[in-house]
Write a structure and sequence with these properties.
31% helix; alpha/beta; 7 strands; Rossmann fold
Length: 240
């Protein structure tokens, strides 16, 4: 059970709340956002299930954006395996090991920022803990939420986990190179289900293995960088 957010806790106790439960996180997220803005960094919160291909997408992104400077944070309950993969791909990466928490929060990101030199960085990718529930609730100070959804997860995940996809600015439908081996899965059906829950449908089919769609993904990133305000503070696009 997650000791931070209490997900799955059957004991519901009524309490009088004087302040929004996540108000402290929101204040820290605003502080993080100011850090990113001061350095002209576009921060992306990359979410998705375990095995959705988040790390593989970032490896492919590093290859496609060889002219840009990338940095990353890799969140996981245990081990630094994802961080090690990203470092091997040439992305300076700070590992965040949560122990039992099923998501990152703004304070964990802020502490990790002390170990990342943001000067000269174009993109900071925050690879969240693999989970389709809790990470969507926590603002980290990012400019955009991107969700990786693998075709191997099935067509119904947007309907079963709508909060995650309501908060998404973009969904990367990953591992499309496996579609020939998945006769019962259609990208069109995934897109139809996403359209039912996303405020504004934005979907890109990609394959980190073959490179399909990666150029379109990196073009999206490049388009979003100039959308930062003149002061350098990135626009906040997290949906309510």
């Amino acid at each position: 059970m997650c000791e931070t957010c209490g997900c799955g806790d059957p004991e519901m106790v009524p309490v009088e709340v004087q302040e929004k439960i996540l108000s402290g996180n929101e204040r820290q997220a605003a502080h993080n956002r100011a850090h990113f803005g001061e350095h002209g960094v576009l921060a992306i919160n990359l979410m998705g299930s375990p095995g959705a291909g988040k790390t593989a997408v970032l490896e492919a992104t590093a290859r496609a954006l060889s002219g840009r400077r990338l940095a990353a944070m890799a969140g996981d309950l245990a081990t630094e395996r994802d961080a090690e993969r990203l470092r091997a791909a040439g992305i300076p990466t700070q590992s965040i090991t949560t122990g039992s928490a099923c998501h990152l929060d703004a304070d964990l990101v802020h502490r990790a920022l002390h170990h990342i030199a943001l000067d000269g960085i174009d993109y900071l990718f925050i690879e969240n803990v693999g989970n389709l529930v809790c990470p969507a609730v926590y603002d980290l100070g990012q400019a955009f939420n991107v969700v990786a959804l693998a075709v191997t997860e099935g067509e119904d995940k947007p309907l079963k986990y709508p909060v995650m996809f309501r908060k998404a600015d973009l969904v990367l439908v990953t591992k499309v190179d496996l579609l020939p081996h998945l006769p019962d899965v259609r990208v069109e059906a995934i897109e139809e289900n996403l359209a039912r829950v996303m405020p504004a449908l934005a979907v890109l089919p990609v394959s980190a293995r073959t490179g399909q769609g990666i150029d379109t993904w990196t073009a999206w990133l490049e388009r979003e960088r100039p959308r930062q305000h003149p002061s350098g503070v990135a626009a906040h696009h997290q949906h309510g």
